[in-house]
Design goal:
By secondary structure, the protein is α+β, with helices and mostly antiparallel strands. It has one domain (3-175): ph1033 like domains (ph1033 like fold). Helix content is 25%, strand content 26%. The protein has five helices and seven strands; from the N terminus they run ααβαβαβββββα. Strands 1, 2, 3, 4, 5, 6 and 7 form a seven-stranded mixed beta sheet that branches. Strand 3 and strand 4 form a beta hairpin. The protein starts with a helix and ends in an 11-residue tail after the last helix.
Length: 183
């Protein structure tokens, strides 16, 4: 079985709930739960996600501070991108990045005289985009809901560990078993 087939088996298996997921993911994810770390989704266009990944920062909800302050060092963040770009981009509806909050510092970044957004440092990991349609029936957040997008309307939401792990397995694919997610 090649790496892609392994990935597809894990992601598409109806038995994923029966798999002891911590065997598939690095120990840092298992330790996160014990330390009380939380799991978040940020809703951001793919073009803005790329800038954050390149710069090692998170910026949510058009640069507002409240969402960033809800997260703590060690928390995990997955970006969901409804579109490729904010203004007129193509529909994407995919998870586009995964990272871990590095510290508890929330800071401002001067982009223009009229726009000074808040940011925080995040360490991102190499991953593949995963269409949410592939996971809708597997996630507690969306399972059985025709209007699943309603959850994403505020731009930042906490998710259950089980949902985070299912998305992480899909995004990290074959890299999951060997990929180190340490800070």
């Amino acid at each position: 079985m090649n790496e892609r087939e392994k990935h597809d088996l894990i992601v598409n298996s109806k038995e994923i709930e029966q798999i002891h997921t911590s065997e598939l993911l690095p120990p840092e994810l298992d330790e996160s739960d014990k330390k009380g770390h939380r799991y978040w989704i940020g809703v951001v266009s793919a073009s803005h996600v790329e800038k954050g990944v390149e710069g090692g920062f998170a910026q949510l909800c058009h640069g507002k501070v409240s969402s960033l302050r809800r997260m703590n060092a060690g928390d995990w963040l997955i970006y969901y991108s409804p579109r490729t770009s904010m203004q007129g981009g193509k529909v994407l509806q995919a998870f586009t990045a995964i990272g871990r909050v590095v510290d508890n510092q929330v800071y401002t970044y001067h982009m223009t005289d009229s726009f000074v957004p808040y940011r925080r440092n995040v360490k991102y990991y190499p991953c593949q985009q995963v269409k949410i349609a592939d996971l809708l029936d597997q996630l507690i957040l969306t399972r059985g809901q025709t209007r699943w997008g309603y959850h994403f309307r505020y731009g930042h939401l906490q998710i259950q560990r089980e949902d985070f792990l299912k998305i992480a397995v899909a995004m990290l694919g074959a890299e999951v078993e060997t990929h180190s997610l340490s800070l």
